[in-house]
Amino acid sequence: MIKLAQLTGGKLIAVHVRYDRALRLPTWDGFQIPLPFSGVEIEITSPFTVPRRMTEEECEQHRAELESRMIDGLGE
User: Fold this and answer.
1) What's the CA angle centered on 29, arms 59 and 5, to 5 degrees?
2) For the whole model, what pTM was predicted?
3) Of 15, 29, 66, 73, whose CB is crowded by the most CB atoms within 10 A?
């Protein structure tokens, strides 16, 4: 995703969805199906910009920051 954003100039946004009640499937990603009338909370992080030119170290730093946003759900 980082390389694609770098090449296209697009911005990345992490989205987190939480349910009050959901069925969690026994799959590799823990896919969830919300139950009827379940409460839903959606959190969208601030846009994440990747510069067009960067070193491999900078690329890894951006990858780690994006991963942190996806896991923690923090915008900034």
Assistant:
1) 25
2) 0.61
3) 66
Please check whether residue 1 is in contact with residue 66, taking contact to mean a CB–CB distance below 8 angstroms.
yes
- Collect all residues with Cβ–Cβ distance below 8 Å to 19 and sequence separation of at least 6: 32, 34, 35, 38, 39, 40, 41
State residue 19 phi and psi, 5-degree precision.
-120, 145
Question: What's the pLDDT tens digit per position in 54-64?
Answer: 888 988 998 88
> How far is it, in rounded angstroms, from Cα 55 to Cα 53?
7
- Across the strands, what pairs with 43? 16
Residue 63 to residue 34: CA distance in whole angstroms: 30
pLDDT single digits (tens) 9-57: 888 888 888 899 999 999 998 899 999 999 999 888 888 888 888 888 9
